[in-house]
Write a structure and sequence with these properties.
This protein is α/β, with parallel strands linked by helices. It contains seven helices and five strands; from the N terminus they run E-H-E-H-E-H-E-H-E-H-H-H. It has a five-stranded parallel β-sheet with strand order 2-1-3-4-5, with helices on both faces. It starts with a strand and ends with a helix.
């Protein structure tokens, strides 16, 4: 396991490293501040941010990094202000721990955060796939409607025709339906 510890306080960072000691001691690297290029180069399995109090700049940097290079992030803060926990979670922090940095707690917290991150990534992927499937289904329905109107087909025959075109072309039915709608739009003059 590769762990990047971001903490300007070397004593506090040492507590995190101490909590990770054991038979399967991970590769731990420490830096004083968040640097997206360093995160990308090191490619940690988990990022640990330890600080006095989370600041908006760090949270914004984490949010930007989460968009391009998502990683599980655990944040240990000595204190917190109202609303910072929510901002941290929205920035991609999987675990936000206030006044709870103790070496014995570090490994279990990281394991839970990594598991939670993996589940969230899977849910995001499933949601994106469901949205894409729904959009594809809408396009297929519109293409079926066009075929029904222009060719006088019933719904089942229109779907069979779309499916046959997709199989003949070796393309997904949604892509073939989108092409059909585009061509129909060009013929009607909608795309000019």
């Amino acid at each position: 396991m590769r762990v990047l510890v971001i903490d300007p306080d070397s004593a506090r960072a040492a507590l995190v490293a101490e909590g990770l000691e054991g038979d399967d001691r991970p590769d731990v690297r420490r830096t004083a501040r968040f640097d997206a290029a360093e995160v990308a180069a090191y490619a940690p399995d988990v990022i640990v941010v330890a600080c006095d109090c989370a600041d908006r700049d760090t949270l914004e940097s984490l949010r930007e990094a989460d968009e391009t290079n998502p990683r599980p992030v655990v944040m240990f803060a000595d204190r917190s202000e109202p609303g910072l926990a929510e901002q941290a979670v929205r920035a991609g922090v999987a675990a936000y721990i206030v006044d709870g940095l103790a070496p014995a707690r570090v490994r279990p917290i990281l394991e839970v955060a990594m598991t939670r991150f993996a589940l969230m990534q899977q849910l995001r992927g499933d949601l994106a796939k469901a949205k894409a499937n729904l959009e594809s289904r809408k396009v297929v329905d519109r293409a079926k409607g066009l075929l029904m109107k222009e060719r006088g087909l019933d719904e089942e025959a229109a779907y069979r025709l779309l499916r046959k075109l997709a199989m003949d072309k070796g393309r997904p039915i949604g892509a073939v339906a989108a092409d059909l709608l585009s061509f129909a739009g060009l013929l009607k003059g909608d795309g000019a």
